[in-house]
Amino acid sequence: MGTASPVAAEPWKSCWFNDQPMGCRDQHHADGSVAIQWRDGLAMTYTLVREGFPRSTLRDSQGGLWQREVLAQGNAVFSHTQNGNRITVPLRAEAGHDCPPAVRAQVDGLYRWQLARQERPGPIAIASQRERFTPQLFSLLERAYALTPADGRFVDFDPFSCTQVSTVGAELQECRPDQAGQLMARVAVQTGLRGRSAEPAQQLGFVLAPTPQEGWRIADIVYLREPSFRLSTYLKELLEQRP
Fold first, then answer.
1. Cβ–Cβ under 8 Å, residues 39 and 23
2. Which CATH architecture has domain 101-240?
3. Distance between the two ends of the chain, CA-based, in angstroms?
4. What are the tens digits of pLDDT across the range 166-207?
5. pLDDT recorded at residue 136
6. Element housing 236 (H / E)
7. Residues of each domain in the chain carrying CATH 3.10.450
């Protein structure tokens, strides 16, 4: 990510480095270069190599090449051409916080179901939540939940809290635009065992994709921990395992 270098005091923005939210601020220079400073003190300058719109090529202070794409809303996505690192910088300082009402309705509805289902014994009735997910993710969830210990493999944690304990509550904190017109919605999930104090909130990133008629649907969940991983990847690997 580079070492610290002076950057003008622009407003802090809700930026992301790969799947991790992190405050940053950017400064654009007349020669086309861009300086990005992160809240943890690191900074990098990106020098223009090939100008273009919406895509251009830049070189960072360590010699790495990045493709910068300016999305329709004016937000910029920087993608490293070799290691796959990705930086998302919103156009405005407040752009990363607003969540469309339809996105909030999907997430809130999912956790209302989550809290209610915990009171009922028996298998998880994921079919009732079909309309909240893209067909691809729902198919993975449905097939994975059909597995039992007798199959030699099964879903061994709760996908909507990233724990093996109960969900106490959930708060949708912010949204930011992703590539291909998707949104990443950050959700803090409070969990804990009955009769005990709640544990530190789990940070989950919901990837929501727009659909022509059904509105926003959940396409994936990113577990924002070290190391981070995705629900879709976990489910695919689980289903491909041989007992």
1. yes
2. Roll (3.10)
3. 42
4. 898 898 888 888 766 788 899 989 888 765 555 788 999 999
5. 97
6. helix 231-240
7. 101-240
